[in-house]
Amino acid sequence: MGGAGAFGSRLADGLAATVDCEVVIGGRGTSNATRTRDDLRWRHPRAQVDIARIDAARAGAGDIRCLRPDVVVDAAGPYRPGTYGLARACIEAGVSYVDIADGRAFVTGFPAALDEAARSAGVVAVTGASSTPALSNAALDEVVRGWRRVDRIEVAISPGNRAPRGLSVFQSILAYAGKPVHVLRAGGWAYAPGWGLTLRRPMEGLGTRRLSLCETPDLDIMPARYPDAGEALFRAGLELGFLHLGLTAATLPVRMGMLDSLVPLASTFRLVAALFERMGTDRGGMEVVAEGLDATGAHVRGTWSLVAEAGDGPHVPTLPALALVRAILSGSPPAPGARACVGILGLAAIEAEMRRLRITTRIGTVPLPR
Predict the structure, then answer these.
(1) How far, in Å, are 31, 358, 367 from residue 314 at the CA level?
(2) What structural domains does the chain harbor?
């Protein structure tokens, strides 16, 4: 679903390039899907690619059965709390479901809403098979493997300015920008403004970039998985400093209660960003940093970093979904039930999907003073 979109088309490309399966690109219309299909057939002559007219927001179990899929991947969104209609339709149809949602409320509410039905139907339903929470948690698990204690966690993502950004990306950011975000910080739960807590810091392979607080599922999932941690933050940033700070300034009316949300201005923000799309670079990256006590009891900082070159960064959010679909089709699916994509995929499985792309990762640990 949404296979002609910015992320869906990249997932379809990964499937066509590396998985022996038929790829069906679903969407409400056929023009964009047809162009994507033709492009994939040209680049991957041996791939089986087709299209289907289907509305992800209205599809029922009968619509899913008509397509006879093995797996349905929702790359269309929007991923708003309670909008689990497509997942419910897949469960009723007895078809595995995967999505690339990164909305905090959507992902955290997914198991409670669907797990009982999925288990009863013997169906796998997985949400958040994307950069967050799937990749971020897989990287964190690898960084702290064998540690005695995790004290602090921080995740950062900074795409290159030339990376394509659909309207849904702007809507996702603006949905929380300026609003209170519940976050574990300095040893306790508190509220901080979305797109606040701004700082400048060097990122591996990217130089110094500005980063601000994002509302993602990791803000709930990481503290639950590592309860000794006194801080768990997730920040993201725009490569161009003046755009990043401009968005920060735009959140002030929301923070002051003068506006309910910046979402109605998403098209305007997208237009402004397009005016500067030739500036900056097409290099983006991600970091997962943890501090705590390693296996010997030494106080250490562990870091996993990713750098994507030459426009391959937009593939990253699709790689956990690609790895998960591969596992399902190969006969090694997760157990039936509905859950977030955490503890399902190891970091090695996701990094294996990076081999055909210009993406490099590093992991290391340094001692910290006591």
Answers:
(1) 22, 11, 33
(2) 8-131+314-352 (3.40.50.720), 133-312+358-367 (3.30.360.10)
